[in-house]
C-alpha cells in the first residue's frame, strides 16, 4: 500500500505499487537528504501515532523542509491504514507503516512525501520471545552541536549506511543486533532505544545529540510509571547494563526485544513477571 502526499497542499492519492513514483534526481536517494518514521499498524490502526507525528514534524523543521502540518500527516496515515485493511480483507494482520519526506528533485526543488504499509518483518515475534545477541559498536563520532549548529540532531534522517554496515558486521560474527557506544557510555541500538531495569528502576540514555528520542521508549515509560516503576533518562555505562536485571531494545515495529548477551557475555534475566506484559501493552498503545 502506497499513498503519495502533495507537500504544498496536503492532498494525497494512492499509488500503484507496480509503477515508479520517485525520480532519478530525488535528493532522498542521491544524498539521503530527508527523514522517515516507522509505525506499527495493529488491529487496523496506527500505534503511538501522536508521538511519531511530533517527532516527524520536528525533524522536518530541523532539516528546513516545508511544513506539512499535523492534519495532512494524519489524513494520509488514515488513508494508508484504510487501504491496508482493505487489502488484508478478512485476514487482518499487523503492518509496518513508513512515512518518508525528502528534499525532492534537484531539478525542481519540489519535496517528495509518501507513506507505505507492508508486512511486518518475519521473525519479529520470535525475537521478542527469544531475544537477541548484541555487538557493542563504537559510534566513532562525538557530536558537538555548539561547534556545529547545522547538525540536525534529533531528526530521524535517511542516512543509515553506517548503521547497516554495523549490523552486517554483527551478523558476520554470529550476533543479531548492535548497541552504539562512545567509550563506556551507552548510546542507542542500531534501530532502537536501550532500556535497562534494575528492581523497580527503569533507565534509558538521555536523548539529545547522540541519542534519538524514542517514541516507543516514551510509551514504555508512561506505561511502566503507571504500574509503579521509577523511570528516568540517565547516563548508562556498559557495566551498568551488565549489572541490570534485564536489558531491552525497544522500537515501534519490532516492539520490546530482550538482550541476551553483549559481545558474547550473557546478561541477567531477573525482571518481575509483569514486565513483558507491560512492554507489550506499551507497544500497542
Automatic annotation (TrEMBL):
Protein's GO biological process: carboxylic acid biosynthetic process
Cellular component aspect of the GO annotation: cytosol
Any one GO molecular-function label of the UniProt entry: catalytic activity
Protein's name according to its UniProt entry: Aminodeoxychorismate lyase
NCBIfam families listed in its UniProt record: PRK07849.1-1
PANTHER family given in the database record: AMINO-ACID AMINOTRANSFERASE, AMINODEOXYCHORISMATE LYASE
Family membership: Belongs to the class-IV pyridoxal-phosphate-dependent aminotransferase family.
Pfam family name, one: Aminotran_4
Organism annotation: Corynebacterium pyruviciproducens ATCC BAA-1742
